[in-house]
Amino acid sequence: MKLQELVSDIQNDIIDTQGEKNVIVKGIASDSRKVSEGFIFIATRGVQSDGHDFIGKAIELGAKVIVYETEPADLTPGITYIKVKDSADAVGKIASAWFGHPSQQLNLVGVTGTNGKTTTATLLYKMFLQLGFGAGLLSTVCNYVNETEYPATHTTPDPISLNEFLAKMVESGCEYAFMEVSSHAVHQKRISGLQFKGGIFTNLTQDHLDYHKTMQEYLKAKKMFFDNLPATAFALTNVDDKNGLVMLQNTKAEKHTYSVKSLADFKARILEKHFDGTAIEINGRELEVQFVGVFNVYNLLAVYGAAVLLGQDIDKVLVVLSTLRSVSGRFETIRSNDGFTAIVDYAHTPDALTNVLDAIHDVLDGGGRVISVVGCGGNRDKTKRPIMAQEAVRLSDQVILTSDNPRFEEPQAIIDDMVAGLDPVQMKKTLCIVEREQAIKTAYTLAKSGDVILIAGKGHEDYQDVKGIKHHFDDREIVRSILGL
């Protein structure tokens, strides 16, 4: 591709250009290790490293064009240098141009919020497939181009990978694409250059303070997504969340709301709850859905609202909504022959844990005990650890604190951080078992007929991250093995 075509979307951000402008570019990279002959290398500042430090390496590997913010000490003859205001912003726009602006050829909807992103985006993807459309998904659990599956490494991929996926969707005949938009992705401008048809806000509760430092900064990152939506898009927000309307304050998009408690464009009412599903009413229409918990009703409302805003027939949307099943590792129910129920869920924030435990109690209605196996991830927001323990103890009859993904921390140290939030009375119904498999087995020995065991934190994950190595570990496999299923 000609260089001038490639940088056409960043013309207003270019401060200076040195060297030959009439260059043919053979590839793009923001990681110097992926540079080959004839590439353009965009130097960006990351959390762990600064791409400006690898400009020399990129040139050695064959880069012919360098996009940067901070000018290198020495300029290499024969290389084209382009100085920009914001190279992180430039990556997405250059990537979009390189792949033929794929987001402009799709109905792209982004889902952001602390909890519910994966479920909402995945169910929208599944719904549109069932409605007969080509559809793609970018999510924490897995990426899809129609029915073809690709492994996911990040909630929101880097801008080049992201545009490559969207281009695959276009090539495969997809009309719709649904993606999770993490706060990290917004802050790091990974979604720069994308054209969205709609944005959905689920909720905002404490998480990622290791990165954003304060809840206000976390809120600002989420809001930035809506601030940048075009007038041609819709913005659909959960009005029951205290930050729901904040998301709409500065958006140019068409504003819409959904709610379980208040007046809204899309309103749901819960009629009946059980472990196999929930009877609900949406905008006056009754249906049975195969999901448990108020939090899932919010997710389904967001899915319904987005589908209607994308122009789909209401009756068809309701029929599909009643057939959809839970996302892998989200309130996944496993029944035992002994009469108790095990639930595996990805809940790894205080609010998500509370939501799942509340959902269990709503169905149990005092008819059994709740035994919770809970851990916290290493090298992540430490401030939520004592809160997680407090919520687990408050809403459980017995709690077993254990290891999650310790990463580069000691599992016992993480558990100690959780225990720090508990008083002596709370500790009386709390066990600490570092080995996760042993913790799950202990919960099983404590359970009686009618009880529910919640195994929280890892959900769909089939590994445990220890000292940088991912060891195979699947909560669901462990449970089924214990139960002989």
UniProtKB/TrEMBL annotation:
<dbReference type="GO" id="GO:0005524">
    <property type="term" value="F:ATP binding"/>
</dbReference>
<dbReference type="InterPro" id="IPR004101">
    <property type="entry name" value="Mur_ligase_C"/>
</dbReference>
<dbReference type="Pfam" id="PF08245">
    <property type="entry name" value="Mur_ligase_M"/>
</dbReference>
<keyword id="KW-0133">Cell shape</keyword>
<feature type="binding site">
    <location>
        <position position="457"/>
    </location>
    <ligand>
        <name>meso-2,6-diaminopimelate</name>
    </ligand>
</feature>
<feature type="binding site">
    <location>
        <position position="32"/>
    </location>
    <ligand>
        <name>UDP-N-acetyl-alpha-D-muramoyl-L-alanyl-D-glutamate</name>
    </ligand>
</feature>
<dbReference type="InterPro" id="IPR036565">
    <property type="entry name" value="Mur-like_cat_sf"/>
</dbReference>
<keyword id="KW-0963">Cytoplasm</keyword>
<feature type="binding site">
    <location>
        <position position="380"/>
    </location>
    <ligand>
        <name>meso-2,6-diaminopimelate</name>
    </ligand>
</feature>
<keyword id="KW-0132">Cell division</keyword>
<dbReference type="Pfam" id="PF01225">
    <property type="entry name" value="Mur_ligase"/>
</dbReference>
<feature type="modified residue" description="N6-carboxylysine">
    <location>
        <position position="222"/>
    </location>
</feature>
<feature type="binding site">
    <location>
        <position position="461"/>
    </location>
    <ligand>
        <name>meso-2,6-diaminopimelate</name>
    </ligand>
</feature>
<feature type="domain" description="Mur ligase N-terminal catalytic">
    <location>
        <begin position="25"/>
        <end position="97"/>
    </location>
</feature>
<feature type="domain" description="Mur ligase central">
    <location>
        <begin position="111"/>
        <end position="307"/>
    </location>
</feature>
<dbReference type="GO" id="GO:0009252">
    <property type="term" value="P:peptidoglycan biosynthetic process"/>
</dbReference>
<keyword id="KW-0131">Cell cycle</keyword>
<dbReference type="GO" id="GO:0008360">
    <property type="term" value="P:regulation of cell shape"/>
</dbReference>
<keyword id="KW-0961">Cell wall biogenesis/degradation</keyword>
<comment type="function">
    <text>Catalyzes the addition of meso-diaminopimelic acid to the nucleotide precursor UDP-N-acetylmuramoyl-L-alanyl-D-glutamate (UMAG) in the biosynthesis of bacterial cell-wall peptidoglycan.</text>
</comment>
<feature type="binding site">
    <location>
        <begin position="404"/>
        <end position="407"/>
    </location>
    <ligand>
        <name>meso-2,6-diaminopimelate</name>
    </ligand>
</feature>
<feature type="binding site">
    <location>
        <position position="182"/>
    </location>
    <ligand>
        <name>UDP-N-acetyl-alpha-D-muramoyl-L-alanyl-D-glutamate</name>
    </ligand>
</feature>
<dbReference type="InterPro" id="IPR000713">
    <property type="entry name" value="Mur_ligase_N"/>
</dbReference>
<keyword id="KW-0547">Nucleotide-binding</keyword>
<feature type="binding site">
    <location>
        <position position="188"/>
    </location>
    <ligand>
        <name>UDP-N-acetyl-alpha-D-muramoyl-L-alanyl-D-glutamate</name>
    </ligand>
</feature>
<feature type="binding site">
    <location>
        <begin position="155"/>
        <end position="156"/>
    </location>
    <ligand>
        <name>UDP-N-acetyl-alpha-D-muramoyl-L-alanyl-D-glutamate</name>
    </ligand>
</feature>
<feature type="binding site">
    <location>
        <position position="190"/>
    </location>
    <ligand>
        <name>UDP-N-acetyl-alpha-D-muramoyl-L-alanyl-D-glutamate</name>
    </ligand>
</feature>
<dbReference type="GO" id="GO:0008765">
    <property type="term" value="F:UDP-N-acetylmuramoylalanyl-D-glutamate-2,6-diaminopimelate ligase activity"/>
</dbReference>
<feature type="short sequence motif" description="Meso-diaminopimelate recognition motif">
    <location>
        <begin position="404"/>
        <end position="407"/>
    </location>
</feature>
<feature type="binding site">
    <location>
        <begin position="113"/>
        <end position="119"/>
    </location>
    <ligand>
        <name>ATP</name>
    </ligand>
</feature>
<keyword id="KW-0573">Peptidoglycan synthesis</keyword>
<dbReference type="GO" id="GO:0071555">
    <property type="term" value="P:cell wall organization"/>
</dbReference>
<keyword id="KW-0067">ATP-binding</keyword>
<dbReference type="InterPro" id="IPR005761">
    <property type="entry name" value="UDP-N-AcMur-Glu-dNH2Pim_ligase"/>
</dbReference>
<dbReference type="InterPro" id="IPR036615">
    <property type="entry name" value="Mur_ligase_C_dom_sf"/>
</dbReference>
<dbReference type="GO" id="GO:0005737">
    <property type="term" value="C:cytoplasm"/>
</dbReference>
<dbReference type="GO" id="GO:0051301">
    <property type="term" value="P:cell division"/>
</dbReference>
<dbReference type="InterPro" id="IPR013221">
    <property type="entry name" value="Mur_ligase_cen"/>
</dbReference>
<keyword id="KW-0436">Ligase</keyword>
<comment type="pathway">
    <text>Cell wall biogenesis; peptidoglycan biosynthesis.</text>
</comment>
<feature type="domain" description="Mur ligase C-terminal">
    <location>
        <begin position="329"/>
        <end position="459"/>
    </location>
</feature>
<dbReference type="Pfam" id="PF02875">
    <property type="entry name" value="Mur_ligase_C"/>
</dbReference>
